[in-house]
Amino acid sequence: MRQLYTLLIYLLSPLLVLRLWLRGRKNPGYRERIGERFGYIAQQIPQNCIWIHAVSVGESQATQPLVRWLKEQFPDTAIVISTTTPTGADRVREMYQQEVAHLYFPFDLPGAVNRLLDRLQPQILIVMETEIWPNLLHICKRRALPVVLANARLSAESAKGYQRVAGMTREALQSFSAIAVQNPADAQRFIDLGAVKQDVHLCGSIKFDVRIPASVREQGALLKAACGAERPVWIAASTHAGEEEIVLRVHQQLMQRYPDALLILTPRHPERFSSVAAMIEKSGLSTSRRSEIPVCKPGISVYLGDTMGELTVFYAASDIAFVGGSLASTGGHNILEPASLGLPVIVGPHMTNFLTITALLQEAGALQQIEDEAALLLMLEQIFDDADMRHAMGQSGIDVIQANLGALDCVSEVISDLMRGKA
After folding, report:
1. Helix %, strand %, coil % for the chain, to 5?
2. Predicted pLDDT at 91
3. For this structure, is 59 an active site residue?
4. Are 268 and 387 part of one and the same domain?
5. What is the predicted pLDDT for the residue at 388?
């Protein structure tokens, strides 16, 4: 089965490159360093490193507590982070500057994988969340290179997809040295698909190990003060196509009750910033763009967060957070960041990527899950009307995060054992 899979990847590789080129029309980053997709590395990359793979922005963000720990424990070992998307690459650069090296993840072709491994000579590969590449894992196992699937999650829907290629999935999962999963349901799905039970570790999500620097909180407070300190402010974060229209209509209705309400709107993908800006203009709402006017003005109704790496600042400037990708059928995005700042969190019905975390916050009263546009408006009005409710939801979110710290300790122990040859 893996041989047939490899043949298909070889046959499809011209189309994969064409797809990168076409996507580059909206985001030129897709056209950069295409050689790296085939394992050809032109830049200076340190050898004998720790290699972390994080497919895009969310996974890259999740590496922060792990990288912080790795740098403390292995200060003389270089860290290389690979991503699949340019937005992930941008996030890595924003978070780490020159502290880590970045490269684009290769296509899952034996030649590309071998070239990259020959160049990097990594001590260990840490794969974030749900990246299962049969050839990469087969080659790493053959080379006796330990591979950890960290912060691992697997939805029921994804498990059904992997079940269709059960033999290849089983071989791939058994090539992992360790799988550190977020919750018991994920653990059982991995085991049912063929993972070695003894190699599956129930650690929780390292995303709970959130540290918001005081400087970020201060920047958020300054932004809110500039916009108007007493204004009700809500953020629609990481929104996708189809969601911006909804939140703009909701905001127009909210302003009938709260005329000075401010919406901070941050689309998920940078290539959509300009089209969303045009959408806001068309709605008739007064607006400004962060990239053009860094200081928010009190007279605007919608502040477009069209910069990278500032989402936490925008959260810190808000009173309530709606997290996107949840009204659209995307599976949701990280809800722990706003919760850690004490914000009441609202999400739509589609949170399949964060079921456990959503359930925890919802059960604690820190999160409200709504079904549609009308329910979003109603919930915003309810929370803005009730300061006690707003405070209680925010404090509950902080309490949930405090109660679930410790996943990093579990994951780091797994990695330490493998790094030091104790596994």
Report:
1. 50, 15, 35
2. 83
3. yes
4. yes
5. 98
Quick one: 395 and 409 in the same domain?
no
Which of these, 250, 253, 214, 222, lies nearest to 235 by C-alpha position? Answer: 250
* Inside any domain, residue 7: no
Decide if 6 is inside a domain. Answer: no
pLDDT at residue 84, as a whole number = 95
Question: Measuring CA to CA, which residue among 309, 246, 331 is closest to residue 283?
Answer: 246
Q: What is the dihedral of CA 411, 412, 413, 416, to 10 degrees?
A: 130
Residue 353: which domain range? Answer: 214-403
d(CA 311, CA 314): 5
User: Which of the following is catalytic: 59, 129, 131, 243?
Assistant: 59
Q: Per the structure, how many domains does the chain have?
A: 2
Q: Which residue has the tokens 């290629």?
A: 165
- Looking at residue 383, its pLDDT comes to 98
Q: What angle do CA 375, 376, 381 make, to 5 degrees?
A: 95
Let me know whether 399 and 409 are in one domain: no
CATH number of the domain residue 44 falls in: 3.40.50.11720
Supply the pLDDT for residue 311. Answer: 95
- Asked, for residue 4, whether it belongs to a domain, the answer is no
Q: Which helix (H) or strand (E) holds 302?
A: strand 302-304
pLDDT less than 70: residues of the chain:
422-423
- Cα three-residue angle 226-231-232, rounded to 5 degrees: 125
Q: Taking the model in full, what pTM does it have?
A: 0.73
Position 105 scores a pLDDT of 96
